[in-house]
C-alpha cells in the first residue's frame, strides 16, 4: 500500500508539472480510478469523459480508457495534447467496424440517417450524422424515429437491437459486439437471481438480448452506478465490467455487489467481466507516459472537422 501511495504521489506531481488532467473510465483498475480521484481528475462513462475532456482547462488530457475515448477527446479539443498510457488499448466494437467496409454499407443505404456508437474510430464517426453513447442511444434514436427518419446503426448489434425493440424505430444494424458483454449468460443469471431473490439486476445494453430481458435496470455505466444508490435493494447482480465495482462499493459500502455469470471459465476466459484493453491502463504506463510521452493521439485535420459535427450534436442533445 505504501508503494502505491508513493506511485500516486509521483504521478500527481508529474500531472501538475505538465498541466495535465487524468480522465479514467469506470472499467479501469481501481488503483487508476483512485488516482483520478486523488489528482482532481475525473472518472465517468464515455459520454461524461468526452464532455470533461472538452471542458477542462488543462492543456494535456491523459485518457485512461480505450483508444476511441482518446480520439474523441482529441476531436473535441484539437488544441489540447491528448495522451494515453498505451495506444494498444482498443475495443472489439471499434475493431469490428473498419471504415472502408462501413463506408460501403453507408453508400448502399443513402436514405438512412447514420448513427454510430461512440465505440468507433474517428474515421467512422466522420461518416456519421450522429454519435451516441449507451446513455443516450435510446433518446436519440427515439427522437430520430419521431422525425420519420430511418436509421443505419453501427456497430453494436446488441445495443442496436435493444434500441430498436424499445423505440420501434426502423433500424438497419451492423453486426459488431463487445467481447466482454457478449459473455454474460441468461441461464446462469436466472439461477443467480433465484439464489439472491432480493437482488436487483443491472445490465449494460451491450449484453445479449436474453440477459437484458432479465434486468431491473438497463443503462450506461453511470446509469447503473446511480441505480445502486437509488434502488433500495441490499444486493445487486451486475452484468458489466467488474472495474465498476470500485465505485459501486465506495458509494454503498453496506451493499453487496455480485458479478453476473459468464459463459467462459476462469483464466481461460480472457474477457469475462473484464475488458482486456481497459486492463492495459496500469499505473506504471501512466507514469511512463507522463515522464516521456510516447502515446499521443493524433487525428487527421479533415477527420476532426467532419467527426466534430456528430460528436457536438451528441453533446448538445444530452445537455
Ligand atoms: P459507457 O458509455 O456506458 O461508459 O460504456 C462504454 C463501454 O465501452 C462499455 O463497454
Ligand atoms: Fe469495447 Fe467491450 Fe472493452 Fe467496452 S468493454 S471497451 S465495448 S471491448
Structure in words:
The longest helix is centred in the last third of the chain and has 17 residues, at 301-317. The protein has helices at 2-17, 30-38, 46-55, 67-76, 92-95, 99-108, 122-126, 137-146, 157-167, 186-195, 209-212, 221-230, 245-251, 283-291, 301-317; strands spanning 20-25, 42-44, 60-64, 81-83, 113-117, 130-132, 151-154, 171-173, 199-203, 217-218, 235-239, 256-259. Strands 2-1-3-4 form a four-stranded parallel β-sheet, sandwiched between helices. The chain folds into three domains: 2-89 and 278-298, NadA-like (Rossmann fold, 3-Layer(aba) Sandwich), CATH 3.40.50; 93-178, Rossmann fold (3-Layer(aba) Sandwich), CATH 3.40.50.10800; 181-268, NadA-like (Rossmann fold, 3-Layer(aba) Sandwich), CATH 3.40.50.10800. The protein contains 15 helices and twelve strands. It is globular and about 50 Å long. The chain has 319 residues and is α/β, with parallel strands linked by helices. 45% of the residues lie in helices and 15% in strands. Residues 45-47, 119, 133-135, 178, 206, 220-221 line the site of 1,3-dihydroxyacetonephosphate (13P). Its EC number is 2.5.1.72.
